[in-house]
Amino acid sequence: MALQIVPFKSSNASLFDKVRNIRDVVFIQEQQVDEKDEFDEFEEECEHFLLKFNDKAIGTARWRLVGDKVKLERFAVLKEYRGKKYGDELLKAVIESARIENKTMYLHAQLKAIPFYERQGFKKVGDLFVECEIEHYKMVKN
């Protein structure tokens, strides 16, 4: 079982197509997020990640600078690969990559994903809010 995490920029069309497919399945099809909200103007500035299992693209995430902080976004793992801790490895890799900026990291966590982020030291801050018709909390890691 070979798990691989590949960082890349959106200019790598082949890898970004795989990411688009995963985000389409998870966010647009499963969670009913509007495509115009899912794929945004920040794609080119982000550091993207493709999670592969036995050379099959199964997950993705990205991070970007937002002011004086780093925002982690778009964590998605295909349904049949969830619950196997593959997402934990992806999150660890994204955190490690973003550490180069030496800034506070934050994300917007869907309610069901809060324990996932807490395992890596993120803490809920602020009030519950709705983004793309899904309830979230802001979570921060210093």
Task: Provide a descriptive summary of the structure in words.
By secondary structure, the chain is α+β, with helices and mostly antiparallel strands. The protein has one domain: Aminopeptidase (3-Layer(aba) Sandwich). Helix content is 28%, strand content 40%. It has 4 helices and 7 strands. A 7-stranded mixed β-sheet has the order 1-2-3-4-5-7-6, with helices on both faces. It is globular.
Protein traits:
142 residues; alpha+beta; 7-stranded mixed sheet; 4 helices; 7 strands; 28% helix
Q: Layout of helices and strands, plus pairs?
A:
Blueprint: E1 3-8, H1 13-30, H2 35-38, E2 47-53, E3 56-66, E4 69-77, H3 86-98, E5 104-110, H4 114-118, E6 123-131, E7 134-141
Chain-averaged pLDDT: 95
Give the total of domains: 1
* Basic shape: globular
Termini gap: 33 Å
- Give the % helix: 25-40%
Uncertain stretches: none
Main pleated-sheet profile: 7 strands, mixed
Strand content bin: 35-45%
Order of helices and strands: EHHEEEHEHEE
Task: Tell me the name of the CATH class.
Answer: Alpha Beta
Spatial strand arrangement across the major sheet? 1-2-3-4-5-7-6
Q: What does this entry show, briefly?
A:
With 142 residues, the chain is of the alpha+beta class. It has a single domain, classed as Gcn5-related N-acetyltransferase (GNAT) (Aminopeptidase). The chain has 4 helices and 7 strands, in the order βααβββαβαββ.
